[in-house]
Amino acid sequence: MKVQTHRLTYQTRGFSHVLDITEDVKKILESSPVRSGNLTLFVVGSTAAISTIEYEPGLVEDIQGALEKIAPLKGQYAHHQRWHDDNGSAHIRATLMGPSLTVPFAEGELFLGTWQQIVLLDFDTRPREREVVVQVIGVE
Amino acid sequence: MKVQTHRLTYQTRGFSHVLDITEDVKKILESSPVRSGNLTLFVVGSTAAISTIEYEPGLVEDIQGALEKIAPLKGQYAHHQRWHDDNGSAHIRATLMGPSLTVPFAEGELFLGTWQQIVLLDFDTRPREREVVVQVIGVE
Amino acid sequence: MKVQTHRLTYQTRGFSHVLDITEDVKKILESSPVRSGNLTLFVVGSTAAISTIEYEPGLVEDIQGALEKIAPLKGQYAHHQRWHDDNGSAHIRATLMGPSLTVPFAEGELFLGTWQQIVLLDFDTRPREREVVVQVIGVE
Predict the structure, then answer these.
(1) A contact test, residue of C2, C38, C95 with most A CBs within 10 A
(2) Any A CB within 8 A of C54 CB
(3) In chain C, what residues touch A68 (CB-CB under 8 Å)?
(4) What is the pLDDT along chain A (140 residues), one digit of tens a residue?
(5) Among A66, A115, A116, whose Cβ lies nearest the Cβ of B71?
(6) Residues of C with CB below 8 A from A46's CB?
(7) How far is residue B91 from each of residues A29, B79, C100, measured CA to CA in Å?
(8) B9 to chain A, minimum CA–CA distance in Å?
(9) CA atoms within 13 A of residue C6's CA, in its CB half-sphere
(10) Is the CB of C138 inside 8 Å of chain A's CB atoms?
(11) Shortest Cα–Cα distance, A86 to chain C (Å)
(12) CATH number where B99 lies
């Protein structure tokens, strides 16, 4: 059994910037001797999330619209009053979606659908450098 | 340490069809020599999700109602305009809920509550054949 | 490879009580010989969830407000009619957020951000004793 820790770094724009990170994740797995197991993604920080989506500009716009309804950017947040901050919507979106995703693999291949991409969503209200931890656990 | 990959296949109706898959998952664990570890479920595709619920018809109706408010079936989606598709609501619901769930177990028993069932939710707008990957990782 | 199963128990107030459990989780990892791997949290029951948040009173209030919009405490639920129960909102919030979270670690340290705490959210409509399973899987 092996545990391999990798880190991916992204320059993000914030404001629900959605980045397709599937190819970077696949490259990590291709370079690994681990053939069967789980690949866990975890984004460090409390204003971003990881999920899967069919990555096309229409759906990126649609997920941004749905999150804007759930936690509007210009909404009223106690977080703003207490910390004179402006990213309450970012925190709420991140907590609802969650920072982590686990994708199983076998024979060196992730079990993703053809139109199912792994995405990093950055909800913060400014550009950020984001770190995604990719933990590979399994057997050769 | 062992990694065991199983696949479950379901015929689904779509339109937020909620299927209780707990018994199938338990059977996999019962037939496995792995006694302690994690069981990860992952649904292949971008219009379905995995979660837990107290599986009774009332709550199935309630979760369908809550998701209809968040991403209405007949809402306006950029995905529809770009791809002449009609399942934008399905994609949004799936991305918000996530395709994956990890349930720990020990002494061959999943740590589920008595009224906590594992469910597959299919949001697509047509019947589908769905594949759920069940990855068992742990020790004998 | 080692699998270690721990249990944390909390007295909760319900009504979207949000508890910061980060220190308890870190203590488990500090006392473990496992140095690299994944730590999976799973809350037993169908009316609670696990996620991360910047734990400060403003954001606790904000996440409670967002969930109240998504699944209002005093809303109409088929679950109430069928079971003469009053916690339909709790079930819906729990199913949407999910009962599980996986956090990778290396060299004995969780990959959490400085302002990213692990939280247990109890949505039920009465005080509860809650069990959170903490499964540590990895190598020494």
Answers:
(1) C38
(2) yes
(3) none
(4) 899 999 999 999 999 999 999 999 999 999 999 999 999 999 999 999 999 999 999 999 999 999 999 999 999 999 999 888 999 999 999 999 999 999 999 999 999 999 999 999 999 999 999 999 999 999 99
(5) A66
(6) 52-54, 113, 115-117
(7) 26, 9, 22
(8) 14
(9) 19
(10) yes
(11) 12
(12) 2.60.120.460
- Across the interface, which of B66, B104, B137 has its CB nearest the CB of C42? B104
Q: How many domains are there within chain C?
A: 1
Give the mean pLDDT per block of 10 residues along chain B (140 residues): 97 98 98 98 98 98 98 97 92 98 98 98 98 98
Q: How confident is the model at residue C50 (pLDDT cuts 50, 70, 90)?
A: very high
**Residue C63: how many CA atoms within 13 Å on its side-chain side?**
34
Q: Structure tokens of B41? A: 């479920």
The pLDDT tens digits for B100-139 are 999 999 999 999 999 999 999 999 999 999 999 999 999 9
CA dist., res. C1 & res. A53, Å (int) = 33
* Residues of chain B numbered 66-105 and touching chain C (CB < 8 Å): 66, 69-70, 96-98, 101-104
Domain span including residue A47: 2-6+12-139
Complex prediction ipTM: 0.97
The identity of residue A51, as a single letter, is: S
Distance from CA of A41 to the nearest CA of C (A): 8
Instruction: Give the closest residue to B40 by CA, choosing from B28, B23, B30, B53.
Output: B28
